[in-house]
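Report of the visiting student (M.T.), summer placement. My assignment was to run the structure pipeline on a short list of targets and document each run. The first record concerns MBL fold metallo-hydrolase.
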Amino acid sequence: MSGFNQIPGIYHRPLGEMLVTTVCDGYMAYDTFDIFRDPDHAKLRHFLEAETRVAPPVVSINTFLVRYGSRNVLIDCGSGDIMGPTCGRVPGLLDQMGIAPEAITDVALTHIHPDHSNGLTDPVTGAKLFPNATVHVHQAEIAHWFDDGEKAKATERQKRVYFDAGRTQITPYLKDAANLFDRECEILPGITALPSPGHTPGHTCYVLRSGVEVMIVWGDTVHVPEVQLGDPGVGMIFDTDTPRAAESRRRILQKCVDEDLLVGGMHIHFPGFARIRKGYKGAFRFVQEQWFHADNHGHRPDAWQPPGKTS
Ligand SMILES: [Zn+2]
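After the run finished, the structure tokens were exported:
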């Protein structure tokens, strides 16, 4: 047995009248614990190995396509060409699903970081990759990533992949195809933006409601569930403000417990759906949702008919 290709990173999960599809952009494999802002590497290793995970971690990059009515909403849009050969798969997977870039009506960004927003624009030509989409993003993201004073404080790499690339990606949409919000608000019917600042200044979760079902797409609230649910205080070097990110993480995790929310996460292991339960002494537990077989409720996909039924 030589090489193989994994099955396509596409997974459907109905949510009331919505169809939520995880589209996996790829993954990052880290060779260091220095991605965490925590010097206690023995603790980090313990959390991962106790859950039989790879240590240092391998992290999935997911986007979520939400289809309902006449809308095709992408929550984050993949990394384009900036994250190397293990990433950048969203355009190919959308194509495989028969969804043209022109059919995407909205892109809701959890924040402007290359693994989430670098699929918006062709960096060479400056052309929109989703020509008919409105981009929804927190106003504080624009303020921060366009701030030359903030940029001057950044490392050379951060200047290039966060500030420069971020500006290149969002600029074509800002003129006439952007919805900038600055507080909790409904951005589209059934989709509410819930700011959760810290990881970045305008980091935002999106709450989806349809029928009796509620789901939160929590962006980068958690990068490595085994570690950050075990100790929600552990930050990442990618955080703009680590203490504030931890505060938002605790608040969102508690909300997920209190409201029994279905969670979709950009960095939860594919296919990226889970619920959160209370753990021991301030910890939380991560319960991956079981695979959704397409006939679980007998009405998805739409053309599905019970075996033997002829009409
Ligand atoms: Zn991320």
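The domain at 10-288 is CATH 3.60.15.10 (Metallo-beta-lactamase; Chain A). The pocket of zinc ion is lined by residues 113, 115-116, 220, 266-267 (CB under 6 Å). I thank the supervising group for their guidance throughout the placement.
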